[in-house]
Amino acid sequence: MSKTTTDTELPPAAVEDAAERLTTAPTESDGPVGIGVLGWLRWVWRQLTSMRVALILLFLLSLAAIPGSLIPQNGQNQFKVETWKAQHTTVAPVYEKLQLFDVYSSVWFSAIYILLFVSLAGCIVPRTWQFVGVLRAQPPAAPSNLTRMPVHAAWRTDADAGTVNAAAYRLLRKRRFRANLAGGSVAAEKGYLREVGNLVFHLSLFALLGGFAWASLASGTGGKLMVAGEGYSNTITQLDDFTGSRFYTSQDLDPFYLKLKGFTARFQSKGDQIGAARQFTANVEYYAGSDAEKLKQGTIEVNHPLEIGSSKVYLIGHGYAPVITVRNAAGEVVYSGATPFLPQDGNLTSTGVVKVSDYGDKDGEKTQMGFSGFFLPTAPVAFDANTGPRSLFPGDADPALVLNAFAGDLGTDSGLPQNVYQLNTKNLTQLQQDGQPAKVRLKVGQGWTLPDGYGTVTFDGYKQWASFNISHRPGNEIALVGGVLAILGLIGSLFVQRRRIWVRAVALPGGGTQVELAGLARSESAKIAEELAELAVDLQDDAPATDDAPATADPDAPADPDAPDEASAVPEPSQPAAPAQPAVPADQKSKE
């Protein structure tokens, strides 16, 4: 069986070290411990579990999260990712290889927070056990020379030494110190919440990382764009995109129905911030499961998601969908409906395409048609030759539709996937009108007769669309609790002071009792001096100071260059202390 060594059984030097050590943090080594591979492994482990490396890893994790906030992510908005790739064709392949479109699930980001996990675990576990040992043990015994402490006081009294020690023990307990009366002295300690705060802070970081890791393993996100009046069921076949995880697949999607009834967008129309968004509200109706009779009304706003089951529906985008009707040469309607156009700037200048796969035959040959163009919520009177069509305001003050027409093969029958917001003109020919590429600017209700007898196009109106992110992240609550605990733990570790006070009353050979008090705090603060002074004043009721000159420190004690001036602790013999007043506690930071 192992033997537990108490403070009284330790050699004097060890007792002094234990008394002045106010932290349970493990000591760090400056180099490898041991010989060979085992020694290097121990050294690497101690470095990994040190506070320095943990802070470095935490800083690296913060830096690694920056690309995730600057670059569109696949799990959040697939449309933005595709648009960004189309606008940055040179660096997009490089970003793809570096996993910058999937930062939070990338190998390098995972490696950082896994190492941080290990570092925190290796730091928390031994530190917790050491702190438990400190709580179970008695406060460290008083050092042999209390006048060497940074803050101390001493005086003589006619009271009995045992009575003084008992009074000091009672006063310290009243001040909520953990006190121990043994060996002719009182040892007391206070401020354990500082170390509790440190441990809570570390555990909260562990909880934050745990919540993040759980969210990465058991979360999933889907995207859906709906034009006003449309609805969908939350299934993999009706989502525009879906990103799952190891423990959350398409089979785990929450069953519900969601319909966009209408969308309200309001922008500032005057002043310095003209065009700034003031309101985005999606009015929806929904029901969970398959019971349509439980239909509910709801609203979704930016940063105010709608919670259905274990999923949250976020509003992430908004735009316009012009209603376009296309008729072929025979006058038959071959396309009709609202087509979402994607915003390109703050004034919602939007681009989009219309693909007519079932146009029919033209001149005896099967053909297809495509239209690309711009939707301008507030169109200018004339377009700038350099910038092209641009909207002047994000609101629908004067909408206009600009279209170009193409005929040929859209490639939709090839079986290869296509982007519904882009037009592949490789096998298409742009129609010509008066020797120029065929294009038109339409107001609501206007039509366009296509050249070469291809039919007509009508701009019937427009609707608003909204895009939603359906998110399932089970670790958010854990991360939130961890964040709150981190703040509370940091407050405790910063504002609670760990401190120790010792009182020794020793009977003098010539009669009377020598009373010595000393205090030690982990951080440099005037509070320990004030606390010691208050204790000395309170102790005067049981150990009043005499008129005799107080005893000086032991002359045979070795000199300590770091020790405070003892003249500040004990009055000079030629200047005896006033009756019934203790010596003022000495503080080596004092100017006196």
Which percent band covers the strand fraction?
25-35%
Query: Quick one: biggest sheet?
Result: 7 strands, antiparallel
The total beta strand count reads 25
Poorly predicted runs:
1-10, 549-592
Q: Shape from CA axes?
A: elongated
- Termini gap: 54 Å
Number of helices: 10
Give a topology summary.
Blueprint (H helix, E strand, L loop, with lengths): L11 H9 L15 H13 L2 H20 L7 H10 L4 H6 L9 H30 L14 E7 L3 H14 L3 E5 L2 E6 L1 H27 L1 E8 L3 E3 L7 E3 L12 E12 L9 E12 L7 E6 L4 E3 L2 E17 L5 E6 L3 E2 L6 E13 L2 E12 L23 E9 L19 E3 L1 E2 L2 E2 L1 E4 L4 E3 L6 E17 L3 H20 L3 E9 L5 E9 L5 H13 L46 E2 L5
Antiparallel strand pairs: 1-24, 1-25, 2-3, 3-23, 4-6, 4-22, 5-7, 7-8, 8-9, 10-11, 11-12, 11-22, 13-14, 14-15, 15-16, 16-17, 16-20, 18-19, 21-22, 23-24
Helix pairs in contact: 3-6, 6-8, 8-9
Question: What can you see in these coordinates?
Answer:
With 592 residues, the chain is of the alpha+beta class. The chain has ten helices and 25 strands. It has helices at residues 12-20, 36-48, 51-70, 78-87, 92-97, 107-136, 161-174, 192-218, 476-495, 527-539, and strands spanning 151-157, 178-182, 185-190, 220-227, 231-233, 241-243, 256-267, 277-288, 296-301, 306-308, 311-327, 333-338, 342-343, 350-362, 365-376, 400-408, 428-430, 432-433, 436-437, 439-442, 447-449, 456-472, 499-507, 513-521, 586-587. The strands form five sheets. Strands 4, 6, 10, 11, 12, 21 and 22 form a seven-stranded antiparallel β-sheet that branches. Strands 2-3-23-24-1-25 form a six-stranded antiparallel β-sheet, with helices on one face. Strands 13, 14, 15, 16, 17 and 20 form a six-stranded antiparallel β-sheet that branches. Strand 13 (342-343) and strand 14 (350-362) form a beta hairpin. Helix 3 packs antiparallel against helix 6 (107-136), helix 6 (107-136) runs antiparallel to helix 8 (192-218) and helix 8 (192-218) packs antiparallel against helix 9. It is elongated. The two termini are 54 Å apart. The relative contact order is 0.15. The model is unreliable at 1-10 and 549-592 (pLDDT under 50).
